[in-house]
Specification:
- It is built from 14 helices and 7 strands.
- The chain has about 325 residues and is α/β, with parallel strands linked by helices.
- It has a single domain (about 75-150, about 170-330), classed as Pyrimidine Nucleoside Phosphorylase, Chain A, domain 2 (3-Layer(aba) Sandwich), CATH 3.40.1030.
- The longest helix is centred in the C-terminal third of the chain and has 17 residues, at about 280-300.
- It catalyses: N-(5-phospho-beta-D-ribosyl)anthranilate + diphosphate = 5-phospho-alpha-D-ribose 1-diphosphate + anthranilate.
- Homodimer.
- This is Anthranilate phosphoribosyltransferase.
Length: about 325
């Protein structure tokens, strides 16, 4: 009979040592599935601390398969789970920002709560996921962009995925993706769907040694900068934005979130291609707004209006669309 390690009772916040050991036992298969499920649910009900989030991320980082990336590479992603089913904003932003000369190591996955995740939509556009994964380091160096498919880089998560599915509720692992980028980026634009939790999440990121990051949360519970209203922003390290921003701060008009409602991968792929071909409307404005923050984060632009204008130029000149074509054709 297998002897499993006992996980701590998370009724009270865990110490650094006990959190580190608990997540090592979970990821290394030293705890039973029942114990893991009970631990994760209890932690979620009580509310994870920044230390617990940081230690979980540290444990996942220690077990991932890494790639080498340029020192100035960034990531743009969200934790997901906002239930808004929007078009793929961060994926489009990654292409636009990379076409502006900022290397983007895009970390993502297939859909969990939405109909089309980043991997699903890129695949529908013609990107071969297996090839993109195998050549991620090369495309990042040669084209300035790559897609790091989470399943390829986090073997320790294989056992955890069915447990999370069985639990059927948000747990600490819903927060882990942006904190465990295989390219070890130190600058990130991260969207989280819980405005009140943004400071806790940002503190975890700071504990992990982030050089500069923006943790953003649309006040309606959106895991990106909202094109419909105000967004909570927590700045870390060398980059700063106001603690609350609106689309007008970047010179972008407002639109209701329903105006960028997405569909399945094929639907989202068509919308993304039309955006890159210059189509104006709510999707473009949401992308310009988020790309503006990413460009300020990268240090290549100093103000949101200037950064939004630079992103619009990259789209209108066809740079972002051409980058997507080169990426798809890369061999």
């Amino acid at each position: 009979m297998t002897s499993f390690a006992q996980l701590p009772d998370p009724v009270s916040p865990l110490s650094r040592q006990s959190a580190a050991q608990a997540f090592a036992d979970i990821l290394d298969g030293h705890a039973s599935e029942e114990a893991i499920a009970e631990f994760l649910v209890a932690l979620s009900i009580r509310g994870e601390t920044s230390l617990e989030i940081a230690e979980a991320a540290r444990a996942l980082r220690e077990r991932l398969i890494p790639i080498t990336a340029p020192a100035n590479a960034i990531d743009v992603c969200g934790t997901g789970g906002d239930g808004q089913h929007t078009l793929n904003v961060s994926t489009a932003v990654s292409l636009v920002v990379a076409s502006c000369g900022v290397p983007v190591a895009k970390h993502g996955n297939r859909a969990a709560s939405s109909k089309a995740g980043a991997a699903d939509t890129l695949e529908a556009l013609g990107l071969d996921m297996d090839r993109a994964g195998a050549q991620a380091e090369a495309t990042l160096a040669d084209l300035g962009i790559c897609f790091l498919f989470a399943a390829n880089h986090h073997p320790a998560m294989k056992r955890i995925t069915p447990i999370r599915r069985r639990i059927g509720r948000r747990t600490i692992f819903n927060l882990m993706g942006p904190l465990a980028n295989p390219a070890h980026v130190t600058r990130q634009l991260i969207g989280i769907a819980r405005p009140d939790y943004a400071p806790v999440y940002a503190e975890a990121l700071a504990q992990l040694g982030s050089e500069g990051a923006l943790v953003v949360s649309g006040e309606e519970g959106l895991d990106e900068i909202s094109g419909a209203g105000a967004t909570v922003v927590v700045s870390i390290g060398e980059v700063t934005l106001p603690a609350r921003i609106t689309p007008e701060d970047a010179g972008v008009p407002r639109h209701p979130t329903s105006a960028i409602r997405g569909g399945d991968a094929a639907f989202n792929a068509v919308a993304l291609r039309r955006l890159l071909l210059g189509e104006h409307g709510p999707y473009r404005d949401a992308v310009l707004l988020n790309a503006a923050a990413a460009l300020v984060l990268s240090g290549t632009q100093s103000t949101l209006p200037d950064a939004a204008a630079r992103a619009a130029e990259a789209i209108d000149r066809g740079d972002a669309n051409a980058l997507l074509d080169r990426w798809i054709a890369y061999a």
